[in-house]
Design goal:
four-stranded mixed sheet; 276 residues; 2-enoyl-CoA Hydratase, Chain A, domain 1; single chain; alpha/beta; 2 domains
Length: 276
């Protein structure tokens, strides 16, 4: 597919999606959302990839949903079906990003507002420039944060922080976003790219099946009792062991005994298993 509103490349096994409407602050237009969805589908079909990086061009990560193209016209016409058609691609690529078994990182290079905050929340980790600002500003326009924003805010932030973002519409700095838990690190702007690559390279070096399972457990176990969580973890240990016919565990244990433990043990098995 020819991309016009995003840049998509594979670099050292990492899929890089760059939102590329700098004149519109990388606002999420219907065309851009269709392109990100297509890129995510390409990523799903490539078993050689080891991670996903999402960032923006220019001085913004994303200003959120393109209101003129995605919202105002359909609402003025009271055409709910067309509005759903417009929104479907963005909701689909949000979900694909969230459900990907690969390591995912959001690299916030500047302004991040509205619908741009959601993908930052649902990536595994996020690093931001010290120039970045964040806001769920929809409530300032007689609307409310939608498209999963209220879910992701309350799922990943402390309740009072999530409520403040959703209900105040105020902008916060990168340091405040870090304090709230919205992002993993804040770095000087000129160190952003190098730091992002160090982070995604580290995550991508882990055993893919182990990474997928660890991510799944981190999402599921907080809502369980301790004994329920340990039972689920044990079930996945057995699942990983039998799926690999013992190879995943045997290789790791042998390396541990020999003090030669290295990332990616059992790589041959794990590429296929991680996609299941």
């Amino acid at each position: 597919m020819m991309y016009k509103e995003i840049e998509f490349e594979i670099r050292d096994g990492i899929a890089v999606i760059r939102l590329n409407r700098p004149d519109k602050k990388n606002a999420l237009s219907p065309a851009l959302n269709r392109e990100v969805l297509a890129a995510m589908e390409e990523i799903e079909s490539d078993s050689t990839l080891r991670g996903i990086m999402l960032t923006g061009s220019g001085d913004s990560f994303s200003a959120g949903l393109d209101l003129n193209a995605s919202f105002l016209n359909t609402m003025e016409q009271s055409d709910s079906r067309e509005f759903r058609n417009v929104m479907e691609p963005v909701l689909k690529w949000y979900r694909k990003l969230y459900e990907s078994p690969l390591p995912t990182i959001a690299v916030v290079n500047g302004h991040c507002y509205g619908g741009g905050v959601n993908p930052v929340s649902i990536c595994d980790v996020a690093v931001a420039s010290d120039r970045a600002q964040f806001a769920l500003s929809e409530i300032n326009f007689a609307h409310f944060p939608a498209g999963g924003s209220t879910w992701s805010a309350t799922a990943f932030l402390l309740p009072k922080h999530a409520y403040w973002l959703c209900l105040s519409g105020e902008r916060i700095t990168a340091q405040e976003a870090f304090r709230m838990g919205l992002i993993t690190r804040v770095v000087p702007h000129d160190e952003l790219e190098n730091t992002a690559w160090e982070m995604i390279t580290l995550l991508a070096s882990k055993h893919p099946a182990a990474y997928k399972t660890a991510k799944k457990m981190c999402r599921m176990t907080p809502h369980m009792q301790l004994w329920e969580a340990t039972e689920l973890e044990m079930a996945h240990i057995h699942e990983n062991y039998f799926l690999s016919e013992g190879e995943m565990t045997k290789v790791a244990l042998q390396q541990f005994k020999n003090k030669t433990l290295r990332p990616g043990a059992g790589q041959t098995y794990s590429n296929s298993a991680a996609q299941t």
